[in-house]
Amino acid sequence: MLLSALIDARPPRRHPDLAPVLAALATAAAETAAMVAGTPGDPVAAARRIFAEALREAELAAIAWDDGAAPEPRMPGAALVLALSPLEGAGDLDSGMPAGTLFSLRPAGSDPRSAFLAPGRSQVAAGFVTYGPRTFLTMTDGTATTTRLLDPQSGTFRAPTTLRVPEAGSRPAAEAGRASLAAAAQGVLVRGGLQRRRDAGEVRLVHAAAPVALAVEAAGGAATDGRGRAILDIPAASLHQGTALAFGTAREVASLARPDADRSPLFAARGLLRT
């Protein structure tokens, strides 16, 4: 699979190991898409095996799997650490709903374990994959967000398309619920609108909220905890810390910080925020 079809030809010079890691993630994503489409058994376990094999020789100081109690040490002295959710939303696959992969890459620094807890603005690259009728790989380096469509015949991703969150979204405000966060983020990047998960412990800050926030902000949108604090400014107290999450068109996300936000026409007319 050609790197030129996966990532920009100019990865940050201070992170020369970034390109091969992204290539390994893309390879695993293509294999996971094929697995999701037709392999019986436990898709979550299968996806973890696929990503573990693809990343076996990747130059990473540590990997924090979403089901691990602590980061898994890898190559001492490597420049990057990876937080990875190989397959989220898998419970909805039988209903024909999409699932996703979420990933976040950060500088390892002198203490790779604590690198995962830094605010999300420390991410050097992040993104997600959505598996459904079509598979998209969406990535960002914090300055721009691109998406690539998987060609299922060749198993390769096509040339990237740059995404910008539409200012006037065609997607109505909605509670994202328990469905795939990657799919919800892809929808916002393409159609705009607002997605919200109100429960403070519902979304994992390191593994999910931070990579989604980086991609959405780089595409001109916004992502907060629903009370005005940018997700990318929040340090994690623990690897699996949860957070509330609101992301989408910057104007609509900003409106949530108003004292009367829960009673605003944006939500009240649909009854989406009533408990």
Task: Give a verbal description of the structure.
There is one protein chain. The chain has 275 residues and is an alpha+beta fold. It folds into two domains: 14-162, Fructose-1,6-Bisphosphatase, Chain A, domain 1 (2-Layer Sandwich); 174-268, D-Maltodextrin-Binding Protein, domain 2. Helices cover 26% and strands 24% of the residues. The chain is built from seven helices and 15 strands. The strands form three sheets. Strands 1, 2, 3, 4, 5, 6, 7, 8 and 9 form a nine-stranded mixed β-sheet that branches. Strands 10-11-15-13 form a four-stranded mixed β-sheet. The protein has a two-stranded antiparallel ribbon with strand order 12-14. The N and C termini lie far apart (48 Å).
List the helices and strands and how they pair.
Elements: H1 18-38, H2 43-54, E1 62-65, E2 72-73, E3 80-88, E4 99-107, H3 112-115, E5 125-131, E6 135-140, E7 145-151, E8 156-157, E9 161-163, E10 174-175, H4 181-191, E11 194-197, E12 203-204, H5 205-218, E13 222-224, E14 242-243, E15 245-248, H6 250-255, H7 265-268
Parallel strand pairs: 1-3, 10-11
Antiparallel strand pairs: 1-2, 3-4, 4-5, 5-6, 6-7, 7-8, 7-9, 11-15, 12-14, 13-15
Helix pairs in contact: 1-2
Poorly predicted residue ranges: 1-6, 8-12, 263-275
How would you characterize the largest beta sheet?
9 strands, mixed
Arithmetic mean of pLDDT:
87
Q: Structural class, from secondary structure content?
A: alpha+beta
Number of strands: 15
Strand portion: 15-25%
- Straight-line N-to-C gap: 48 Å
Order of helices and strands: HHEEEEHEEEEEEHEEHEEEHH
Oligomer: single chain
**CATH C-level label of the largest domain:** Alpha Beta
- How many domains, as an integer? 2
Shape: globular
Q: Identify the CATH architecture of the largest domain.
A: 2-Layer Sandwich
Q: What is Rg? A: 18 Å
